[in-house]
Write a structure and sequence with these properties.
With 138 residues, this protein is an all-alpha fold. The chain is built from four helices and no strands. It starts with a helix and ends in an 8-residue tail after the last helix.
């Protein structure tokens, strides 16, 4: 029986490349190529500016946490661990730099970046009044 099946396989050969199966049409279409979002100069400036302010606030937040100050960001909590703060602020920075540019609506995308600029400017002003400094040791 095994010899018969082996002989049948050798005689008929592979049908998937040249035989009946090669005539079948694919039922899953290829995805339509999406046009890449082209960021203008003002988009790039908003992206870089807001990312720089987030990073600066991050370093000052770490300085405040090491000094025992209370955190005012409700997402972090009043006294977050350094690891939690690094994780959440780092994720926010990555989202700002790489996910927001994927938003197709330019008004929404720019609005998010302007909002981040305003929020981070206020946070940095408060940090400097409190006496916090840049702490590059994460």
């Amino acid at each position: 029986m095994i010899a018969g099946l082996l002989l049948l396989a050798i005689v008929t050969g592979p049908l998937h490349n040249v035989g009946r199966l090669s005539l079948l049409e694919k039922d899953i279409p290829k995805p339509v190529a999406t046009h890449a979002i082209r960021l203008e100069l003002q988009d790039q400036l908003l992206r870089v500016g807001s990312s720089m302010l987030i990073a600066t606030d991050w370093f000052m937040t770490i300085d405040g946490l090491r000094k025992g100050y209370r955190e005012t960001n409700p997402l972090l909590g009043s006294h977050p661990a350094l690891g939690k703060a690094n994780l959440l602020i780092g994720a926010g920075l990555l989202g700002n730099a790489f996910l927001v540019p994927k938003i197709r609506d330019p008004e929404l995308r720019r609005g998010i970046w302007v909002a981040m600029l305003l929020l981070e400017t206020g946070a940095l002003h408060t940090n400097m009044q409190t006496g916090l400094h840049l702490n590059f040791r994460l």
